[in-house]
Write a structure and sequence with these properties.
Number of helices: 8
Mean pLDDT: 87
Radius of gyration: 20 Å
Order of helices and strands: HHHHHHHH
Low-confidence stretches: none
């Protein structure tokens, strides 16, 4: 059904399958990447690329250990994943799942994409930066280094 606004704008609303295409493709890409990470062995040297920041500076970046954490999560070992990168386990993965679920829900109901609140857009990089600094404090490295 075409609304008056669509007629005035000269557009027609997208069908549900078309609205769902982008979030479903994004979900599929992430699922394939996660499956690949679960099946491959990120502990084997040379299989996945090493961290450029760590190789250049000798310091851990916020993502160091994240690939191995996803591997451990896919195998159901939450404790090992937390030991490798607690930020990935407690923030990045849940935020990604919530964002994809929100995008699918909005697309199903007729919207196009979720709106990310400004406080989230500011706080996630701030938390990443803080974690980056804290995990490289020598006294905390035994607890936060992968």
């Amino acid at each position: 059904m075409t609304s008056t606004a669509d007629v005035v704008a000269g557009t027609s609303p997208m069908s549900r399958p078309r609205r769902l295409a982008a979030p479903l493709i994004a979900s599929a890409v992430l699922a394939v990447g996660t499956a690949y990470t679960a099946l491959a062995d990120p502990y084997r040297a040379g299989f996945f690329p090493s961290c450029i920041f760590l190789a250049t500076t000798g310091h851990w970046c916020p993502g160091c250990g994240g690939l191995r954490a996803v591997h451990e999560l896919a195998h159901g070992d939450v404790a090992a994943a937390l030991a490798l990168n607690p930020l990935v386990v407690l923030l990045i993965v849940p935020a990604g799942v919530l964002l994809l679920a929100s995008w699918l829900r909005i697309a199903w109901r007729g919207g196009t994409a979720p709106h990310i609140p400004m406080w989230v857009a500011i706080s996630i990089p701030a938390v990443l930066g803080l974690f980056w600094v804290v995990r490289n404090i020598p006294a905390l490295e035994p607890f936060l280094a992968p």
